[in-house]
Amino acid sequence: PISDEDITLTDIATAVHTTARTLQYTFRRHLDTTPMRYLRHVRLDRAHHDLKAADPSRGDTVTQVAARWGFDHPSHFAAAYRSAYGQSPHHTLRN
After folding, report:
1. Scanning 20, 39, 42, 78, which has its CA 20 to 30 A from the CA of 31?
2. What is the mean pLDDT of residues 5-30?
3. What are phi and psi of 32, to 5 degrees?
4. Distance CA 56, CA 60 (A)
């Protein structure tokens, strides 16, 4: 399962018993992306779902959700989120 832990290309390659180069080639060939971009996409998607389910009145924050999915810099998360979803993560949290 995807988690908030730092995961490197080597970690992924080791987990699937291949080399980093083979993993990169396979992702490029079949998904037209890199393993790390794919992981970032998955983490953004999970953060998006968490933000939609969050409740600011319970104290849920964008920073908490971003950190849960491995985004250590709120400004980088906000920029990536806006690029992917066309709105700020704060807007998703509030609505």
Report:
1. 78
2. 93
3. 55, 40
4. 5
The position carrying tokens 């983490």 is 43
The encoded tokens of residue 68 equal: 């849960």
Matching residue, tokens 């810099």? 73
Beta carbons within 8 Å of 74's beta carbon, 6+ residues apart: 62, 63, 66
Question: Scanning the structure block, which residue is given the tokens 């807007």?
Answer: 91
DSSP per-residue codes, 18-74: S-HHHHHHHHHHHHSS-HHHHHHHHHHHHHHHHHHH--GGGT--HHHHHHHTT---H
pLDDT by residue (tens digit) across 28-48?
Answer: 999 999 999 999 999 999 999
Give 71: exposed, middle or buried? Use CB within 10 Å, 0-12, 13-18, 19+.
buried
Q: Are 66 and 89 in contact (CB under 8 A)?
A: yes
